[in-house]
């Protein structure tokens, strides 16, 4: 059986390389896209098990992280449960955009282990363990930690 695959989508190549090394050391196959177009192509061609998307991958609304997410879900509805967002944008507008996706997200900067734990959980179909102040549920707030499906 082949290892789970993860598509990292971020317009900062150094971030992609750093996270790819971490995930590859744990035996995951990592695909990288630094723009929305190539990200969509990899999703269609390779069907990764998990997608990790930066909210601000594109500079135009129609090329945003949300549009890549929408295209992925249109291709395979399972991506509605197997996608994790990340962002360094702490604005209310960004939180509203993320909440609209219904997916959990990581706030940059975050511990590499938080990404690893979330990706491994998603790849296995388990709820995401929520490290304190790192993984935020885009859905209803959960009291006292817990997990996000």
Query: In order across it, which strands form the biggest sheet?
Result: 2-1-3-4-5-7
The coarse overall form would be: globular
Count of runs of 4 or more consecutive helical residues:
5
Radius of gyration computed on alpha carbons = 14 Å
- Integer count of domains: 1
The CATH topology label is Rossmann fold
On the 0-100 scale, what is the average pLDDT? 85
Identify the CATH homologous superfamily: Response regulator
CATH class, anyone? Alpha Beta
Series of H and E elements:
EHEHEHEHEHEEE
> Into which percentage range does the β-strand content fall?
15-25%
- What structural class is derived from the secondary structure elements? alpha/beta
Ranges where pLDDT stays below 50 over 5 or more residues in a row are: 139-149
Largest sheet: 6 strands, mixed
Helix content: 25-40%
Per CATH, the architecture is 3-Layer(aba) Sandwich
Tell me what you see in this structure.
This protein has 149 residues and is α/β, with parallel strands linked by helices. It has helices at 13-25, 36-46, 65-75, 92-101, 112-124; strands at residues 5-9, 29-33, 50-54, 83-87, 105-107, 128-129, 135-136, 147-148. The protein has five helices and eight strands. The strands form two sheets. It has a six-stranded mixed beta sheet, sandwiched between helices. It has a two-stranded antiparallel sheet with strand order 6-8. The chain is globular. Mean pLDDT is 85; it is low at 139-149.
């Amino acid at each position: 059986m082949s290892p789970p695959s993860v598509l990292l989508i971020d317009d900062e190549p150094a971030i992609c390389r750093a996270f790819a090394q971490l995930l590859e050391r744990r035996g995951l196959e990592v695909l990288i896209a630094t723009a929305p177009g190539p990200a969509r192509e990899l999703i269609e061609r390779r069907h990764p098990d998990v997608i990790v998307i930066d909210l601000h991958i594109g500079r135009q609304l129609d090329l945003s992280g949300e549009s890549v997410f929408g295209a992925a879900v249109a291709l395979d509805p399972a991506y509605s449960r197997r996608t994790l967002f990340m962002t360094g944008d702490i604005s209310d507008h960004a939180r509203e955009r993320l909440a609209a996706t219904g997916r959990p997200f990581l706030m940059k900067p975050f511990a590499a282990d938080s990404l690893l734990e979330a990706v491994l959980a998603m790849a296995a179909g388990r709820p995401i363990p929520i490290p304190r102040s790192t993984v935020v549920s885009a859905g209803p707030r959960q009291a006292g930690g817990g997990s996000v499906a």
